[in-house]
Amino acid sequence: MLTGAFVGSDVASFARADAMERWQDAPMDVQNVFVTWEADLEYVFDRVLPEIVARGRVPLVTWEPFTDGENTPTDLAERVVAGEYDDYLARFRDRLREWVADADGVLDTADDRRCYLRFAHEPNGDWYPWAPATGGTAGEYVACWRTVYDAVMSESLEDAVSWVWAVNHVDVGGVAAESLYPGDDYVDWAGVDGFNWGASQSWSSWQSPSEVFDDMLGRVAEFGKPMCIPEYASTSETVEGHSVSAKNGWLRELFAYASASPVELLVYFDIDKETDWAVFGGERGDMMVTIDGESYSAYSAYGRGIGDV
User: Fold this and answer.
1) Per-residue pLDDT reduced to its tens digit, 161-175
2) Is residue 11 within 8 Å of residue 284, measured between CB atoms?
3) pTM beyond cutoff 0.85
4) How far is CA 301 from CA 177, 251, 290, 306, in A?
5) What does the alpha-carbon distance between residue 191 and residue 162 come to, in Å, rounded to a whole number?
6) CA-CA distance, 33 to 117, in Å (whole number)?
């Protein structure tokens, strides 16, 4: 199984990824970064992605069509299909092709770089403007995906760029994940994002890995594509308070679960955000690790388990 993590999307954050890789004593095959449609493409393709490749990892580019931050229009999919973002897509296509081609400037040769491209993820939720639950229809989302794919891809990129369609582990907002599938010709990998929110939110409760993933992984498997979990994590917050041992137990369960599943790529969300998701360098852990003079809190179950899946 290929494994990796998200530790941040700027070059300054990558030192933590390097330290994490040394601590876990196993290669980080994939490194996830988030890239919006507002991002500086020169920074992305000249700095961020080359830094990941230089470390021997394959970038997983989570390509988010935010065009105006929180004010991104909820009819985004319709606008994309209508051609409103054609100029941006042409710029992205040109930079992607230059980056893939690498030093010789020629596509589809031995020195081509590779990446996973996870576009407009978690569309079956209600928190992103590209999700039909916030506006538009499932058909418009599918048409948007196909429009973007056709604008970016060519036969010479097929071996280098793998498109990842990833949904949330539960449908939120009344739109079924299956209705959002772009079609076999437009998807290389099918993925499910899932988190154990524990008692961190008023609406959440502790869930085992099987409770998080069983249903949606089974549904997505019906499409017959290679399977991945591009984002997963657990809080430590239980009804009794924060429990490092409970989170360690969840991580052990997760690795056993993933090893017995059809999942071929597993990428941890290693950032304390809505709660204490991180397993390395976050707020909590059951051990302290010092690498190159920097100290990091860490969860031993992750460090031991990541090399076994």
Assistant:
1) 999 999 999 999 999
2) no
3) yes
4) 32, 6, 17, 8
5) 12
6) 10
Q: Strands 241-242, 237-238: parallel, antiparallel or unpaired by DSSP? A: antiparallel
Quick: pLDDT tens for 1-22: 999 999 999 999 999 999 999 9
CA–CA separation, 14 and 8 (whole Å): 7
Q: At what angle do helices 209-221 and 244-259 cross, to 10 degrees?
A: 30
Q: What does the block give as tokens for 32?
A: 């996830």
Please tell me the distance from the alpha carbon of residue 134 to that of residue 70, in angstroms, as a whole number: 13
* Inter-helix orientation angle 138-152/86-101, to 10°: 50
Query: In angstroms, what CA-CA distances link 103 with 54, 109, 157?
Result: 14, 11, 16
**Contact at 8 Å (CB) between 276 and 287?**
no
